[in-house]
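Lecture 7, part B: from sequences to assemblies.

Below are the input chains for today's worked example.
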Amino acid sequence: MGRIVGGFGTSHILFPPDGVEEKAGRVLDGMMKIRTQVRALKPDVIVLAGSDHMNNFNLARQITLGVGVADEHVPFGDTGLPTTPFPGHRDFAEAFAVFAAQRGFDLVQVEEARPDHGMMIPKYIADPGNRIPIVPLWINAVMPIPPSPSRCFALGGVLKEMVETSRPADERVVVIGHGGLSHWLASAGEGGVNEAFDRAFIAALTDGKPEPYVAMSAAEIVAAVGNGGLEATSWLFMAGALPGAKGEQLYYESIPEWISGMGGLALTP
Amino acid sequence: MKAAYRVHKMIQDIFADPARAAAFAQNHEPDFVRYELTADEKAALIDGSRSALAALGVHPSLQMKFGRIRRPAKSGGHSLEAAYLDRLLERV
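Predicted structure of the full complex, as structure tokens:
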């Protein structure tokens, strides 16, 4: 059987360091800790879960949950990131779509999408050299109607079950949930950071006790940490793939100048 | 309240096409006509403030994209700092 060998949560944006140089430096250092740990885990595939920012899925085509099945992915190239193609993992991704369907999750299979900064910054954190196949999992956190936190968590469990029962022996899988933490994007509350919530969320996940957040509705999460903070559902997907796992906070900075609570953590199965 | 789909579609379509975005920044009227915007919708988009766009019901992400269309050099469509990119891409 395969194994999920590690899980990570991380914010997926960086803004100019002007005026917040020390905080920005600590955020980047924290992201590099993720890189170091991912490398040590020697994954065969990384499942990268998070939202699209209306660059692929917009009001013309709204999807709730989608898995990138392509052999190769071409980045969208926003925020100055390269558009160099990087490897996908068709066999893993299609197997996940089939397995998830058997467990009540009908994932949209995405053949052609161009991952934007949300996917690409965590991807480059984990694998700057395009050496590790990536399976993007898009979890809508931008448009009505997003998947519930409990459903995202449960889907993580489905991933774990598939890896442990249906994948080749010794396949090593890392799961990264990205986005957040608290931020209000072009909405009332913009510029605010709910540091207390962010830190409690990280503490709950690293203590192996995400249940209070799994039990929240999407609307309750938005009320607590903003429309952008709903990206916490991707972290809950990751936590669902490592139930009971404990871990450590790798970084947290409240940066109102970036209109964001910036955080990262690692879970060890 | 949610903005009419034709408002959202106009922003989505223009944002996806740099040539159209440049043309819109110079003269918005042809697109306003093409997407059959009402006087109130035109006024909100010409105002362009967060409050005006929010009152119209423009989706937050599309508010951001509209800002980049109107002010491509100044608004949120930032590029990552070179120092970030160097570390992210392991160029150093």
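Note for the exam: The interface with chain A takes residues 5, 8-9, 12, 50, 53-54, 59-65, 77-81, 83-85, 87-90 of chain B (CB under 8 Å). Keep this in mind when comparing with the next example.
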